[in-house]
Design brief:
Blueprint: H1 2-32, H2 44-50, E1 54-64, E2 69-74, H3 75-80, E3 86-98, E4 101-102, E5 113-120, E6 126-133
Parallel strand pairs: 3-6
Antiparallel strand pairs: 1-2, 1-5, 2-3, 3-4, 5-6
Length: about 140
């Protein structure tokens, strides 16, 4: 009887000592897999910079702040005298700069020369990611 108790005690001690290292190695592995998550506002600019954007330069034909759209005539079209116009959607996260200062769609006006970086969305619309205005290049100045 004593021998059975001794064997049972040894088995319990051995299985208990094996469980502790197994538990601690699981914790170590799970810690290695943890990935830090940045607050949502911090990765916005990074996301825009890493996306592949097309670029276009031209003259603003019209701005509709209520519908968040800009219509642009490209420089190539201006030189050729063509009347082709390109429309862009402006989102809340679109970065707009005038003379290297933050600006808004309400500050844009017809006749301004702009550089636009954009990408196409799922609906086929051109979505402006960056709009840069150089007021020294406004048409009519």
């Amino acid at each position: 009887m004593n021998r059975c108790l001794t064997i049972a005690l040894v088995v319990l001690l051995l299985t208990g000592s094996m469980a502790i290292p197994a538990f601690s190695s699981e914790q170590k592995n799970s810690v290695k897999e943890v990935v830090p998550i940045a607050p949502s506002g911090e990765n916005l600019e990074l996301e825009q910079k890493t996306a592949t954007n097309d670029k276009i330069t031209g003259e603003i034909i019209s701005v509709n702040a209520e519908e968040s759209t800009i219509v642009l005539r490209t420089e190539a079209d201006v030189e050729k005298g063509a009347s082709q116009e390109v429309s862009f959607v402006v989102e809340d996260k679109t970065i707009i700069e005038k003379d290297n200062q933050p600006s808004t769609i309400a500050d844009l006006k017809a006749g301004q020369k702009v550089n636009i970086e954009y990408s196409d969305n799922e609906e086929g619309q051109k979505v402006a990611k960056f709009v840069r205005v150089n007021s020294s290049e406004e048409v009519g100045d």
